[in-house]
């Protein structure tokens, strides 16, 4: 996998990630639609994810928890899928749930697109934040670097040598 482009645009309140993989689109799509595969890459290294609810369908959601290996910090969240057009596009919102409980507020809407390339596939994620405050909060939290680290784990899931053909 190669991350071919990243961009943080405060004026548009977007973070963009473009990665290319040596696997066809249908295998790349599986890292989203397969609960076990999503668990293996969604959290950045050091913050493994456990998924307690998984419905990969329009209107469905994924409830997840990331727990820090070193400090035990717990981050709960959920994805809500707005549209899924296999194998071309996924649109979802990501919501962190406050540690004191409650539903949390969506702070970004993400569009993930998939396309074939000469040597495999390309995945593009464009996260658009609801407000300048949400964008700045995500930037300060390290979401940009965290998402790069998460995406970088996908290659292992696509490797035929790992039994994921």
Number of separate strands: 8
What CATH calls the topology is Alpha-D-Glucose-1,6-Bisphosphate, Chain A, domain 4
The CATH architecture can be given as 2-Layer Sandwich
Cα distance, first to last residue?
A: 16 Å
H/E element sequence: EEHHEEEEEEHHH
Structure description:
InterPro entries: ASHA1/2-like_C (IPR013538), START-like_dom_sf (IPR023393). It comes from Microcella pacifica. This is SRPBCC domain-containing protein. With 165 residues, the chain is α+β, with helices and mostly antiparallel strands. It has one domain: Alpha-D-Glucose-1,6-Bisphosphate, Chain A, domain 4 (2-Layer Sandwich). It is built from 5 helices and 8 strands; from the N terminus they run ββααββββββααα. Strand 3 and strand 4 (61-67) form a beta hairpin. The longest helix has 10 residues, at 132-141. The chain is globular, with a radius of gyration of 15 Å.
Key traits:
Alpha-D-Glucose-1,6-Bisphosphate, Chain A, domain 4; 8 strands; 8-stranded antiparallel sheet; 165 residues; alpha+beta; SRPBCC domain-containing protein; globular
Brief overview:
This protein is α+β, with helices and mostly antiparallel strands. It has a single domain, classed as START domain (Alpha-D-Glucose-1,6-Bisphosphate, Chain A, domain 4). Helices cover 24% and strands 42% of the residues.
């Amino acid at each position: 996998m190669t991350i071919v482009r990243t961009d943080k645009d405060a004026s548009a309140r977007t973070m963009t990630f473009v990665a290319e993989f040596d696997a066809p689109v249908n295998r790349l799509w599986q890292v989203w639609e397969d609960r076990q595969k999503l668990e293996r890459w969604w959290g950045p290294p050091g913050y493994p994810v456990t998924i307690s609810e998984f419905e990969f369908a329009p209107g469905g959601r994924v409830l997840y928890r990331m727990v820090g290996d070193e400090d035990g910090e717990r981050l709960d969240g959920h994805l809500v899928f707005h549209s899924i057009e296999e194998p071309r596009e996924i649109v979802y919102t990501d919501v962190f749930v406050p540690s004191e409980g409650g539903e949390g507020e969506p702070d970004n809407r993400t569009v993930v697109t998939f396309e074939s390339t000469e040597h495999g596939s390309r995945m593009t994620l464009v996260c658009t934040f609801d407000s300048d405050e949400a964008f700045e909060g995500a930037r300060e939290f390290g979401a940009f670097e965290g998402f790069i680290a998460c995406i970088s784990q996908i290659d292992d899931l696509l490797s035929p040598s790992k039994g994921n053909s």
